[in-house]
Amino acid sequence: MDLSGRPLADTKVDRDLYMPRNEHRLLLQSAEQRLNVLVAGARGSGKTTLIRQVLLDLRDKGHPAVFIDGKLPSDAFSFLELARIQLGDAPNLPQAVRESYSKALTPRPNLGEAGRLLDLIEAMKPSTREPETTTLFVDGLPSTEVGHSLFGRLRDEIWQLPFNWVIAVDDRERAALLQAPADAFFDRLIDLDPMTVDEQIALLAKRTPATGRPPLQPLTQASEGNPRQLLALARDMVERGQAIDDLLVARARREQAASGLSRPASMLLAELEDMGAASASDEELLERLGWTRPRATQVFAELEGAELVTSREEKGHSGRPRKVYVPRGGLGRA
Fold this sequence. Notes:
By secondary structure, the chain is α/β, with parallel strands linked by helices. 50% of the residues lie in helices and 13% in strands. It is globular, with a radius of gyration of 22 Å.
């Protein structure tokens, strides 16, 4: 039994846990046609799992494909540099191709940020006249600004590279990435819809043994079609012995408490449920809300007082402890 909410990897072992949806077939066809695709969906909707499993299908068919965690870099240059490194290390690409991406970059001086980007793009161009196209599966972007810069402002230059791109982003980033001129870069948009009841039941059947399996229909109604929420509910039922009615009652009480919050607290709770966990120092959170760290700390205290979040101490990047807040109930879409 595996009720973990982690995204599935592009491996044969994880394939046994995967429940293909209608979007899988469409994305695979698009990738085989070498189209640039934007995949959009809510957090926890299965975007990462989808693109990794389509990547596995593509590799099984002999097409070169590489996965890139687009949230790791901080800017456009480091994003492309990460892509170049991943291409140089990819085991499913011919050695000559990998070596072409592993060469040291020697940028020309005094060209500024734009010049550095153009130099890097030039270094990623193929040395052969008709190279095989590689599909880059990108899970998230450093920011919508970076995405719009690469696929909008530098669109023509990126088009010259021997890649087709499959980029998975959150719903909230969709509109910004489809603003002109970046809209012309993407040949297809795939919205990852909530799972149907049949898809949810099939997913739970793959993850739970026939004996001791929780009642499936109530879970599918409560999950709102979000696979991560579905697995969290099933996990609470199976591992913690909670009845579905108790879970739904607790959820209703939580929603009632949330209805009495101030507008800033409601905004923060919505962001927190979208992110799964955050601290008052998270730059992404502060940027989304347009707040300062002291303001976020103040509103987090309101949520904690209403018992809508729990907190824990974690070591931050600097080594200093930070207070991280998590929505109660385990139903956040992190």
